Amino acid sequence: MSERVFINDVGPRDGLQNQPRILQPAQRLGLIESLLDAGLKHIEAGAFVSPKAVPAMAGAAELFAALPDRSDVTFTALIPNMKGYELATAAGARSVCMVLYASEGMAQANVRMSRAEADAAGAAIVKRARQEGVRVTSTVSVAFECPFDGPADPGLVADMVARFADLGSDEVCVADTIGAANPVQVRRLMGALVDAHGAERLSCHFHDTRAMGVANVFAAVEAGIRKFDASIGRLGGCPFAPGASGNVATEDVNMMLSQAGFDTGIDARKLQMAARVAEELTGNAPGGRARAWLERHLEIAA
After folding, report:
1. Is the Cβ–Cβ distance between 302 and 287 less than 8 Å?
2. Considering only CA atoms, which of 268, 253, 255 is closest in space to residue 7?
3. Selection from 35, 18, 8 nearest residue 276 by Cα
4. Cα distance between residue 257 and residue 214, in whole Å
5. Domain 6-297: what homologous superfamily?
6. Element (H or E) spanning 301, and its range?
7. Is the CA virtual torsion 3, 255, 260, 204 positive or negative?
């Protein structure tokens, strides 16, 4: 049997948060349903953040109330702080993702805290989540480069991963928030982290700013990582990180992994149809870089 690699589609959250067209909860649910139909088992469904700061995520509680009851699917909510955790769990979320910062500049821009303050807040969330049986992902953002402070310190990133793994995070995600990493850096950092902690609780999140997203995924695969964030239709971009373009496309990652002999459990044709849904809803989803080839290969009419 082929080795399994898991894809967590962050399109309904990360992919939509910076879009000029604001989608209603029912429209976001439609996008999620198209991903479920394609076989996705891990989906970042929304964020419990201030609707003033991120209008695209308004109505998160309504969205989570409408999600299908699927014991085989993990629906994750992004949370910025303890208040976000409380709102998410009150709405029924049993999996949350919180963001840590490998730079002072990004911490200040995103949550108006110092990096140390954000770490302390994150540690408190992990402790509470463990007590309440809520799955928690700790994401180390700008793990390769910050748009404000420049290149990240790999030693600092390694220390952060070790700390939050030791605290009991179910998953620690290393994120290239602005798409500045290259495959050599990725293989070196993720190889060291896998050696130190094993691959089971590690994952990666790449943006495709410089057309190296899929190459970075493959470098992490070679280092032993078996779970990745990706976004349907290459949607994405952080409103608080200048230069952060779309996430690596779920369609591209799925194609590469499948052709490399890995099992993703995803139906490529239905995934391409989900990308069509993303394009119709947003009006500007660029699609994966392999879009034209995939549509011809899968015989999807233009």
Report:
1. no
2. 253
3. 35
4. 9
5. Aldolase class I (3.20.20.70)
6. none
7. negative
Which neighbouring-strand residues pair with 46?
77
First to last CA, the chain: 34
**CA-based nearest residue to 15, from 84, 78, 90:** 78
Residue-level pLDDT at 221: 98
Q: Is 23 helix (H, G, I), strand (E, B) or coil?
A: coil
Query: Rounded to an integer, what distance in angstroms lies between the CA atom of residue 48 and that of residue 77?
Result: 7
| Residue 295 backbone class (left: φ over 0; alpha: ψ -120 to 50; beta: rest) | alpha
Q: Tokens standing for 20?
A: 């000029």
- CA pair distance 66, 39, nearest whole angstrom: 19
* Residue 217: CB atoms within 10 Å: 26
Q: Which two tokens stand for residue 105?
A: 């500049």
**pTM over 0.85, yes/no:** yes
List, for residues 157-179, the tens digit of each pLDDT value. 999 999 999 999 999 999 999 99
The predicted pLDDT at position 110 comes to 86
Specify the pLDDT at position 241.
60
Active-site residue set: 238
How far, in Å, CA of 136 to CA of 291, rounded? 33
Beta bridge partners of 229: 8, 205
- Please identify every stretch of the chain with a pLDDT value under 70, giving residue numbers as ranges: 1, 237-245, 301-302
- Structural contact between residues 95 and 74, judged by C-beta atoms closer than 8 angstroms: yes
Q: What is the predicted pLDDT for the residue at 247?
A: 92
Both tokens assigned to 231: 């976004």
Beta bridge partners of 42: 8, 74
